[in-house]
Each structure stands twice: as C-alpha cells, then as structure tokens.
C-alpha cells in the first residue's frame, strides 16, 4: 500500500527541497514554517494490462460489452488522446496502442471493415507520423497509416459536422467521420482531473466554432478550479456539449489512469521525498545536476524530452462516459489528492520542462505562463492554495525561445499582441477573431505541424482565474524581458522574490510550496 | 595712386554693377548699398537658374538673413520699393562672351568667382579667367569707363614668405597659354579615359562592384567611374599645374592670372581697375548684424571640427597669424576703394586683412576656441556634450601623415569587410568602418583647406587700404570705417563669430539626419510588397535546399559520395556566383537532373517543407502578412525553383520563381524553363508587372538582402534591406534606408539539416 499524500512543515532539520525549473532544478532552502504539499506515493501499476483491458471491454459500465456493439457493416471510429497526454510521454508500449489493439481484435472478430483511427488533437498541432506510430504502436500504424489513421482537422471545410446547440446556445461541432460513425470508441488517458469524461469527444474532435464557447476568459474565470469539475464552468459547458454529442453518436469510452512514475530509474530520486534520499541518491543528484548545468540548452532540451515516463496504469474503465468518468476521477484522486488546511499568503511552484503543448518542442514564455498560472495554479479543490490577493512565485528560466514550426502564431502573439496589452479581456475582444481566422495560421495548422492560430490566446486565457485571484506574480530565474513582456516580475532567488512579495503580503507571510511533478492535487480545507 | 580730389564716399547718383551678387560678398555689398547709399543705383548680374528667373533669384536674396536688419527697419514693402526703384537685374552669364552692360555704369564690383580650392582645371579657368575676360571685354566697350573693383584674394601671392606689399604680382606666367592649355585639358583627359584599356579596366571594376545587380548596372557604374576619373584627373591637373608654378592650388593660381588679365585690360584698353585682395573673410562684426554669415567659409569647418572634438590637433603653427577679417570691414574697404577710382590705364592694389597690424596668432585662436568651447561645449546627441581635447601644436605635416595612414587603413578595412559574408557581426564592423571613413574624409577635407592657410610666414601689408580709411571724414569713418586694428579678437571670436557659426550646429546636433525608422505600413490598393526569398524570408540558400532534398532521399551510405561531389564543385560554384548569379543558379540546378518531379514534390510536402519553415524568419513572415492585412499585393521574386516554395506559397499573391524543366517522362532535366530572375531582371519584371496591374511603385515596398537586389529596391518608394550583405549595407547607410535585422527564433542550418534528414518520414524524431 502506498503512502498517502503529506504536508510537511519546514523546520530546522528540513533539507533543501527540490524545485523544478525548466530543463533543470534547484535545491532550495525554504523559510521555516513553509508548508510543502507532497502527493501520495506512486500507486502500483496493474500487472497484467492485457487482462485488465480485456476485462474492461467485456465488462463495461452502463453499456453492453464491446463485442455486442460491433457488427460487420458498421462504421467504427477509434479516437484517441493526442500527443498532449500523458506527460512526460509514456515509455512504449503506449497504453493507447495496447487498448486499440484489443479493440481492433474484437472489431476484426466481428467482421467490421470500415474502421478509422483519429487523433483527437482538437486545435493542437497534428501529430507527426512518428508520434502517431508511437501512440498506436507499430502494428496498428503499419496497417492503418496514412489512409485510415489520421489527425483530426478542425479546419477541414468538408470534415466537420454541426450537431446542434446546447441549451445554452453553444455550438457543438465535431469531426464528420466521428459524427457519422455507428460507434465511436474513445481511448483516453486521464492524467489530471480536468481531462477525460465529457471533454474527450466534444473538445478533442471539436472546432474553433465549438471550443470558443468554453475556452474563453469568462468561463475560465469561473472555473475554480478546472481540476474540480463540479466547480468548473468549463466542465459545465463540456457536459452540455457531451449531452448533444450523446444524442447523435454512440460513444464507448475507455478511460485509463496512470500512477505517479514520472521519472526513469536513473533519476528516480526526482520523485522521492528529499529527507529520504540515500547516499546514492544524493551522489547521483549532484552529478546529474552538475552535468545538466554544463550541457548546452538545446542538447539539454533534447535529453529531457527523451525522458520517457515508466508510468504504471492504475485503472482501466470502459463503457458509457457518464458512468466511467467518476471511476476515473476517483483513481486520479487516489494518486494525486493531498489535503491541506487553509490557504497561504504565498504559493510556490517549480515549473518543469514540459507542458501539454511542448512535447518534442520548445516551452516558450506563453506556455510557461499557462503552465504556471493555468495548470499548476489550478491543481486544487475547494479553495486556491493562495488566498485572494496573495502572491504566486514560480520557478522557470522562461527563455525567449519559440519553436517556429509548432508555435508560429505564438511568436506573433508574443511580439505583436503582448507588446500592446496583456489584459485577457481586451485580447479576447480585439485579437481572438483575427488569430482564429487567419488563413496563414490555418494553412500551417492543416498542412504543417502548427498549433491553431487561436491557441496562444487560449493559453493566455488559461491563466484568467489566477490573474484575477492573485495580487502579484513573480518568476524566479526568468528572462527578465520575457517576464516583463507578459506583465510579470522576475527575481533571481527565492529570497529576492519573497522580498518583492512583501509589498503585497507583508513581512511574515505564510508560504505553501506545492511539490510537483509528479502532479499533486491540493484539497484545500 | 591717383584718387579723385574729393572722393564721393556715398557714390552719389552712381550706377554700380555687381557680379556674383548671390555670393557672400555680393549679398553684403548689395545690402550695404541699398541700406546706406540712398542715391546709388545697382545693377546685378545674375544668371537665371533652371526655372528660377534672374529676377526671382534677386527677390529671393532679399529674403535672406543679410536683409533682416533692413527689413526690420523699413518693412517688406520698403524693400520691394527699393528693388523697384534702385535695382535692375541683368540676366547674364560671365562665361558667355556676349555680355551687354548698361552704358551709364560708374562702377563695376566684380565679386564673381569660383571659391572652390580644387575644381577641375577647365572649370577654374572658365570662371576665374574666361569670366574676367568676358566681363572686361564688355566693360571696355562702354562709352564711359566705369571704375572696376576686381576682387581677388591675398593668397594670390602664392607661397611667398615675409611681407607682401599691395603691388602687382611678380611672375611671368602667360595667362593666354595657361588658359588655352586648361581649355584643352578636358578633351585630352576625355580622350585618355576612352582608351580601350582604360574602359576595359573600368568595366571590370564596375562588374566587380555592381555586376551582381546586372550588366546595365555594371556598365552604368563603369561610366560613372569614368566621369569621376575624368574629373579627378582634371582636378589633379589643376593642382599640379598650380603647384609647378608656385601656387598652392588652382584657385589662387587662376585668381593670380585673372589679375594679369585685369592689368592687361587696363593697360591696353584704358580701363580703370583697382585690385582688391581680402584675406580670410569671416562673419560680420557690426553690420548688418553682429555674427551675420552666409554659409560656412574658410575657417569655419575647422572651428566646428575643433568644437566637435574631431580635430586631433589645434590648427596652425602657434606664432603664425590667422589673417581674419570680418565681412563688414571688407565691404566698407571695398566701397571706399570704389569711391576712389584710379585713372584710366592704371591699376591699383589694396589688401584687406588684419595680419599686419592686429595679428591674431594661431596660439591666440586656440585659446579663444578652447575658452569658447569650454564654456559652451557642443551638444552631442543623446550623450551630453563634447569636450574639446587639449593638444599640443604639431604642424600640418604630421596631420597629413596621420591622415594618409588613416586613409590607407580605412580603405583596406573596407575592402576586407566587403568580402566577408553578411552577418550581424560583419554589419557591425561595416558600421565602424563607415564611421571611421566619414571621419577620415572629413579630416582630409579640413587638412586640404588648411594647407591654404599654411603659408604661415606671409604677412600682407595694408598701408594703402589704411590710407584710404584715414582719408575718410571722421563722421563717415564712424559708420563706414575699416581699420582692422580696432578689432578686439577676444570679443570677436568668443562673443560674435563662434556663437554665430555654432548656432546652426547646436540645433542640428539635436536633429541629425538619421536612418529613417520603420515607417508604419500605409494601407491601400495598388501597392506591391516585393520580397526576395533567400536571406530575406528564409535563412537557407539553394545549396542548403539541395542538401535537404538529396540527403533525406538517400541511404546514409550514399551521403559521403554526395557530400564529396558537392564539396568538390563548391569552388567552381563560388566562382560562377561571383561572376553571375543567374549562371550559378543555372549551373546548380543541373544537379537535380534525373530526379523524378513527382517524388521531389512528395519530398517537399512531407519533409522539406518543414525545413524551409524552420529556416524562415518569423519577422519576415509577419511582415508579409502585415502587408497582406494592409491590402497590399504580396510578391515573391526568387531564383529558387518554384517546386520548393509550396510551404510558403499561401503568403503570396504572386510568385515569380525559376521553373525546373520536366521532361515528358516526369524526370527533371536539370535545365530551367525560363532564365532565373536576378538583379536588374527583377526590376524589369516588376516594372512590367506594376504596369499591367496598375501598381504604384512609388508607394510600394521591396525587401532584399543582397546588393543584387539594389535595382529592385531602388525601383520602389519604400526599400528595406534585410540582413544586408556589406555592399548593400554600405549603400543603404548612404541612402538612409531603414535596415531590418531579422532571424530570431530561426533554426540553424546544420540543426535543420540534421533534423530533416534524421526524421522518420514526417516525424519529429
């Protein structure tokens, strides 16, 4: 049995604690009294995955077993989560590929001929053939690529179907092939509580026209947090959309959850609690840290990106999305939830090298912002870790560096929009349409490997709740110019950052450090 | 000296002809006559210039600062009245032999002349000698001989040492022979410059300099340098002839010969001529207002250079007099000379200067300047003020040596930098060389100027001029005196002259012409935005593209062979490229011979397209899109084969690229369908295209990185060099074009190549 989550209060005997910082980390001495939230220990993974998959497919929740849903003359579409999940990438074989093989086996047995595989990449960049291969496995790739294994294309004028409006008047538009399928099998990985469930089909196969109803400043300000679906306006919208989808398409979902094994054996110390580091851990940590610091940035990026996670699978549930998802969430909570009493004046987060949008890519300043103020700030239930008007301190070098192929509209957004304003509402009203409908970005999204033109704006909205809630945001170790461009202050050390925070929260603030990765969902009481 | 018994000091009821009225002297004389000689009529000899008639040039004169005091006193209508009643304009040109002068002239003030120290020899003679001959021919035909005041310069005495009296020059140079030789010089030099060997050399230099822009440009450059060569030879001819006869430069040489002409006319035609020789004429002490000056003269550039800390040494030898005289003293002296005509057939000589009786030494000058600039330093844009360095006197020889050394260094540096490939670093070097070159050129000009005044041991006596002053009635001398011994140099230099000449610079110091910043795009129809591809939009070039195409397509075992073959051919390619861009493209494209077009297209779609986007400069893409948003027509002109451009195609309304010829079997033959568009061919294409589509090129935009894009850039109203090569950079700097430095967030060449060839079909890794 794994140990549950834990809140440490820093005292004299507490060693320096590990803080992630892009492609590297710091060992930081926190002020006495700082509370540190650790996730539960990594849960054991399922030993016999094939058996578990088979069991899930044959014993679904709320639907007949999968074989009973398959018939020879049907259109079957298998949709799977894209490159943004899981993080880091899963050490092959990928759980998606294993599940898809089982589904295809059953389909073949049932004589289903018309089978298509679709990556649910929404407005994300297309997955490259190599990435697709990695996700679905060699065999499936060879059999289906390129004709029957494709990326979803939200801008294909002939490839989308408008299913109707929700009761709130929100457009629901999804991939035409999926919409016209007799059965849609969705293969999911739920890494955090925000993913999966109603989000999978409605968002993963959606279009800008549809996504703009929940990916906006208003909704995100009222998603407190978006990792707590009952309190997330965004999820309320997902549910309304899922309802419309459900009325048109039969969805059989297979959701999986992963444990906290983010780091391979060699760097296992990165997810140990610091006071439990043995001599060997300490030595390898120091050696690794030194070598890492001496490595040039580009190479370092490459090395960290190659760091596949030896994730264990903690649960596989199949069937009706509405019935499956609560079980999935329970598994996520089992792995990530840690209770803590009360909010702090200051929250501290170390931002790692990876977010959902820079797999095999570069974490640009906007992605750093969305990882910090979006993803990490929202890793809470009930109340934010920081009190209203408190200060968030993030660690990240935030280099002014962009991937040209993947993030062309990000570069322009950074250079041309953020130089004018950082105000989310102003950006939404003035620039969203322009970025979303730009023919060049659309061309690159469809034909190259670029994120959709509107994506950087979504990343900017992602921090809407945090920006409204916080009194100040300070980045430790960040490129000053890049941070300033986005309206943030930068400090070289934690001590400087705390000094700067004094103006907002006074001289003796309470501090909470959310120790992640592996992901920790704080249940703030 | 034969003066009239009672000189008519106010030239009452006289009729005076002024030549060179638009010059410094002429303006001052005209103003003084109109302001203070109420009954004198004036005729000004002015040449109409272009669309501006002689009369309107005169009217323009009265709007100049020299008339500001008078204008204040009598108002604009008053001045118009003066012009109407007392001034006539004679539209004419001294270089023409058919001058007709009014019959009733009482005096001729001949101020016209070339003041440049080193004009081409024929020009110097045309203005300074032929002009005098023409004028005096016309004067000698008049029924009543007026008194001619012939303005010369004290420096006609050449390099003579010691005291120089107010007397005819001592030399036996035959002015007719010199004039004939000077007039013939141009023909000779022209003939020489057209010799086939010379033309061949010029053309090959033109090709080296402008060949990349195209053959007509190279030819134009060759012809430009031929004309420059002719001018240079004529200047050199003038300077050397002057020196060989004992004068410092062609200016003083021709002025000296002009005196001979005057003397001859006086002797043979019974003319009455007074030769008037001022020294260095500077701003006014009293009249029309203290500090009045027309333009930077003589010493001013040196003073300004001193104030701006450019001059490495204070001017001159410490004890040598800097013979300066304010313009109002000169005017007064000249009018006094005019009022005392010589007898027909005679010539009189007058010096106007200060060196004899009230010398201002170079050491004093240095002290005045140091004091003045110490108290009123010149502003240095954005950097506070300039301190005047404290130096020792070293003499001109040293300066000259230093300069020659500097010139050699700068031109060597420039040659080196020009050969380097374009990068931010070489552009930085180019800027430094450019600045240094400007500085050395400035110094060279100053040094040449200075050599004129380095006849340091010469002192011009002014007894006769002083005698004139003393003969004036006291009340007249009060207003019209010209005894330079009363000038308080401390006051004049520190309080009058320096403040006057630095005033403009002080203003200009804050708004120096700078390369224009990026102007916001003007939205509108009928505007083109033309882009070159390689180096402007993408950082890659044809060779890189070729490597992507060849290496991704082949087994690794074949790479060495391909790379070795390419490396072996590189020297040849480089040579061809230097000679002709289009030949290079033709030759290089042959490497694609034998490839299947369909396969190549697939390769571009699947793998190379990404490489091209990785090498694209985001700023360029942004700019293209901004042009689109502004409603402009975006055009890509490139020598690259169109096949490789598909990833960028959606950005452009029009793509003009090379097309690889594809045989019936779908195999690329290695030949092009049409000649590649490079250099001036691009400009020609754009001109035609603009005509067809009603585009206004003067409002259009063009972007390029190489000197070969110059014809294209110059064709439009908004040229923008992007990461320019050194040659284009130099040109852009001269033209004050805004230069863009693009390429942040762009992948490196090697990195892109490695990523492209390593990729599993289409994958990231």
Automatic annotation (TrEMBL), chain A:
Signal peptide: none annotated. One of its GO terms (molecular function) is lactate racemase activity. Residues 37-222 form the LarA-like N-terminal domain. Pfam families: Lar_N. PANTHER family: LAR_N DOMAIN-CONTAINING PROTEIN, LARA-LIKE N-TERMINAL DOMAIN-CONTAINING PROTEIN. This is LarA-like N-terminal domain-containing protein. It comes from Catellatospora bangladeshensis.
UniProtKB/TrEMBL annotation, chain B:
Gene3D superfamilies: HAD superfamily/HAD-like, NAD(P)-binding Rossmann-like Domain, SG protein - dephosphorylation function. SUPFAM superfamilies: HAD-like, NAD(P)-binding Rossmann-fold domains. GO terms for molecular function: alcohol-forming very long-chain fatty acyl-CoA reductase activity. One of its GO terms (biological process) is long-chain fatty-acyl-CoA metabolic process. InterPro entries: FAR (IPR026055), FAR_C (IPR033640), FAR_NAD-bd (IPR013120), HAD-like_sf (IPR036412), HAD_hydro_SerB1 (IPR006385), HAD_sf (IPR023214), NAD(P)-bd_dom_sf (IPR036291). It comes from the Bacteria. Keywords: Lipid biosynthesis, Lipid metabolism. Pfam families: HAD, NAD_binding_4. Residues 18-334 form the Thioester reductase (TE) domain. PANTHER family: FATTY ACYL-COA REDUCTASE CG8306-RELATED, MALE STERILITY PROTEIN 2-RELATED. Belongs to the fatty acyl-CoA reductase family. NCBIfam families: HAD-SF-IB (TIGR01488), HAD-SF-IB-hyp1 (TIGR01490). This is Haloacid dehalogenase. It comes from Catellatospora bangladeshensis. The lineage of its organism: Bacteria, Bacillati, Actinomycetota, Actinomycetes, Micromonosporales.
